[in-house]
UniProtKB/TrEMBL annotation:
Sequence intervals crossing the membrane: 44-61, 73-90, 148-168, 287-306
Main location: membrane
Localization, UniProt: Membrane
Highest taxon, organism lineage: Bacteria
PANTHER family according to UniProt: PROTEIN ABCI12, CHLOROPLASTIC
Protein name from the UniProt record: Energy-coupling factor transporter transmembrane protein EcfT
Species whose genome carries this gene: Chrysosporum bergii ANA360D
Lineage: Bacteria, Bacillati, Cyanobacteriota, Cyanophyceae, Nostocales
InterPro entries with a match to the protein in the record: ABC/ECF_trnsptr_transmembrane
Length: 307
């Protein structure tokens, strides 16, 4: 088990440098927010299109297969499992409506007539509506359960993988620099923008350390070949409490070492010791990405709205 490779949290692909790496981080934030917000109040075809676009972006960016194969595979498997589970689950609309008796008694004796002026009788097109799409034995799929299954499964993939793709192609320093640039207007309201971005930078750098500590302690437990059945539930809980305590102690030690390193270098406040990691400047490819983003939102407003 290698948590640093299997989990998509805080990972950054340094090599090879794809065209996604070279985009301005502010533009990539705009695209990420567009994926996360355009999903709201959208129809199912648009939600499926977002999933397809994320997969297409990964492929045309020529990100190595070894990087995205496992993560995308697990996410697609999870989304498919959620889709199947929700589609066959009860939709919560088990209400049976009693039809009203017509006031005219002759209607009960007259044969029903179905007319549709828009569909000719010779076309042979059926105008019947069926709420239940599939019903075989214990498996029943309705229109509402299918709609809910598409919504939940697509939002799981879109939210997780869009964030993963952004972290995969954007360095932590670029993320914080872009956020600080976008938050500059908040300085007028006396918001500590620099302190917030510094905290975010340290947090992103700390995530791999957390995964490394958890991975090392889990490996140490596995190498001891503990007989969990012999320990029982109470003994197993005690072991994992000891492991959790050790993880916390190690993380606090790492945080103290990081603070000591900053103090040794004379760091007193972020305003006096600003480090310019990247120069933010929009280039031709960034303006092209912004133009495509404008078309993206135009298509969302025209095609993606709920009927």
């Amino acid at each position: 088990m290698d948590l640093l490779r299997s989990l998509p949290l805080g990972l950054y692909l340094e090599q090879p440098q794809t065209w996604l790496h070279k985009l301005d981080p502010r533009v990539k934030i705009a695209w990420l927010m567009s994926f996360l917000t355009s999903y709201t109040f959208a129809n199912n075809p648009w939600r499926i299109l977002l999933v397809a676009l994320l997969i297409i972006f990964t492929l045309i960016a020529r990100i190595p297969r070894r990087v995205w194969k496992q993560q995308m595979g697990w996410l697609l498997t999870l989304a498919l499992f959620v889709f199947l589970l929700i589609s066959i689950s009860p939709d919560g609309l088990g209400v049976k409506y009693q039809p009203r008796i017509p006031t005219n008694p002759q209607v009960l004796t007259q044969p029903a007539k179905v007319t549709n002026s828009h569909v000719p009788a010779s076309t042979g097109i059926s105008t019947e509506y069926s709420y239940i799409l599939f019903d075989q034995g214990p498996v029943k799929v309705t229109r509402r359960s299918l709609d809910l299954a598409i919504r939940v499964s697509t939002i799981i993939f879109t939210v997780i993988y869009s964030s993963n793709l952004y972290l995969l192609t954007t360095a932590p320093e670029e993320i914080t620099t872009a956020i600080e640039s976008l938050m500059q207007p908040l300085r007028r309201l006396k918001v500590p923008v620099t302190e917030i971005t510094l905290t975010l930078t340290l947090s992103l750098r700390f995530i791999p350390l957390v995964l490394e500590e958890v991975q090392n302690l889990i490996r140490s437990v596995m190498t001891r070949a503990i007989n969990w059945k012999k320990l029982g539930l109470k003994g197993a809980v005690k072991v994992w409490i000891i492991v959790a305590e050790r993880v916390l102690n190690n993380l606090l030690l790492r945080a103290e070492q990081m603070a000591s390193a900053m103090m040794v270098r004379g760091f007193t406040s972020p305003n006096e010791h600003q480090v310019q990691w990247h120069e933010l400047r929009l280039k031709a490819r960034d303006w092209l990405a912004i133009a495509i983003l404008t078309l993206f939102w135009g298509a969302r407003l025209v095609l993606g709205n709920l009927a």
